[in-house]
Write a structure and sequence with these properties.
Elements (H helix, E strand, L loop, with lengths): L2 E2 L2 E2 L11 E4 L3 E6 L2 E6 L2 E4 L2 E6 L3 H15 L8 E3 L13 H4 L3 E5 L2 E2 L2 E8 L2 H10 L1 E2 L2 E2 L9 E7 L2 E2 L11 H8 L1 H23 L3 E13 L2 E5 L8 E5 L15 H8 L14 H19 L7
Antiparallel strand pairs: 1-2, 3-4, 4-5, 5-9, 6-7, 8-9, 10-16, 11-14, 11-15, 11-16, 12-13, 16-17, 16-18
Helix pairs in contact: 1-7, 4-5
Length: about 300
C-alpha cells in the first residue's frame, strides 16, 4: 500500500478512548473536551458515494493546505485552527500520534452556520447549467452571451444549504438571510468575497485559477470564525492556468478526474461504488500533490 506521511493510506480511523462525534465523507471529528480534533482520511467520494479506494496523501493535502491558507488569511478573518502539530495535542492522543501526523487539526469548538458560503469567479458546474436556462446564478442576473468557463464580470456570492445527505441546494441571498439573519449573512458574504479575491490573486501567480470555492463559518460565542477546510481541491475548483481556454470544460486539480472515469462505467451512481483502477488512483493523488506544491511552494512531507 502506498505510504503517506502518517503511514499507510487511511480510510477509517478509530481512537479508542476518544469520543467520535461525527464521520463525514472524508473527515472524522472527535471530542477533545472544549476543543475538537478533525482528522482528514484518504477517502474519496463521487456523486455522493464514498468509493472503496483511498487516495494516498489526500488527507494530508487537505489538512496541510487548509492550515497554509488559514495562516495566509489571518489578516482577513479569524479561524478555528489551534494547531496541526501533534506534539501540541493533548497527552490523551499520544498513542495515536503517528496515525494523526499530517492529517489532523486541533480546532476550537464552534456552532456551524447552516449555510455553505460559495464564491464563483468563473462560469462552471451548476452555475453554468443555471445560466444556460435563465442567465442567472442563484437569482443573480449575468450578462448575455457568456460561454462555459468564462470569467465573470466580478466574483459573486452564491450560498447553498448544507444537506445532511445528497447534494447541497443553491439558495439566493434572501434565503440565506432567513437562515442566519441579516447581519451574519452580510458578514459571511463580505468575508467570503474578500477571501476569494485574496486567494485568487495569490494562486494565479502560481499557475492556478481558482474557479470557485466554498467556505464554512461558525460562531464561537459572538465571534465569527472560518471553520472546516479552506481552499483545497475538495472545496474548490482549481484549474491549471496555462491550459485555460474559455468555451469548454477545463482540466482540474480536483476529483473531476475520478468523476470523468466513473462516467465511462455502467454504474447507477448508488452504493456500493466501484473500485478505482490503480492508474486512476495514482493520477488523482498526483493532482492533489501538485496543487499543494504549486500553492505552497513546497513538497508535501513524505510524498
Amino acid at each position: 500500500m502506498t505510504q503517506s506521511p502518517q503511514g499507510p493510506a487511511i480510510t477509517n480511523l478509530e481512537l479508542p478512548g476518544i469520543q467520535k462525534l461525527n464521520q463525514g465523507k472524508v473527515r472524522e471529528i472527535f471530542s477533545l473536551d472544549e476543543d475538537l480534533l478533525i482528522v482528514a482520511t484518504d477517502r474519496i467520494s463521487a456523486f455522493d458515494v464514498i468509493l472503496p479506494n483511498a487516495i494516498p496523501f489526500k488527507g494530508s493535502v487537505l489538512t496541510q493546505l487548509s492550515a497554509f491558507w488559514f495562516s495566509q488569511l489571518d489578516g482577513i478573518v479569524e479561524n478555528h485552527l489551534i494547531s496541526v502539530k501533534t506534539e501540541e495535542f493533548p497527552a490523551s492522543l499520544d498513542p495515536f500520534r503517528e496515525s494523526l501526523r499530517g492529517r489532523s487539526m486541533r480546532v476550537h469548538k464552534c456552532e456551524p452556520l447552516p449555510i455553505e458560503c460559495v464564491v464563483r469567479g468563473y462560469l462552471a458546474g451548476s452555475g453554468w447549467k443555471e445560466y444556460r436556462e435563465s442567465e442567472t446564478i442563484c437569482g443573480i442576473g449575468l450578462p448575455s452571451g457568456l460561454k462555459e468557463s468564462d470569467e465573470l464580470p466580478e466574483p459573486i456570492f452564491t450560498p447553498s444549504t448544507k444537506a445532511t445527505s445528497g447534494h447541497d441546494e443553491n439558495i439566493n441571498f434572501e434565503q440565506a438571510v432567513e437562515l442566519v439573519g441579516s447581519d451574519i449573512a452580510q458578514r459571511v458574504r463580505d468575508f467570503s468575497i474578500q477571501i476569494y479575491n485574496h486567494a485568487r490573486s495569490y494562486a494565479i501567480e502560481r499557475g492556478i485559477i481558482i474557479c470557485d470555492t466554498k467556505f464554512e463559518f461558525g460562531l464561537k460565542g459572538s465571534d465569527l470564525l472560518l471553520i472546516d477546510e479552506a481552499l483545497t481541491p475538495d472545496s474548490s475548483r482549481f484549474w491549471p492556468a496555462d491550459q485555460y481556454q474559455a468555451g469548454q470544460a477545463q482540466p482540474s486539480f480536483d476529483k473531476q478526474f475520478v468523476r470523468d472515469y466513473l462516467e465511462t462505467l455502467d454504474w447507477d451512481k448508488k452504493p456500493p461504488g466501484p473500485v478505482l483502477p490503480d492508474d486512476v488512483v495514482d493520477a488523482t493523488s498526483r493532482r492533489y500533490l501538485e496543487a499543494y506544491s504549486l500553492l505552497t511552494g513546497e513538497q508535501l512531507e513524505g510524498s
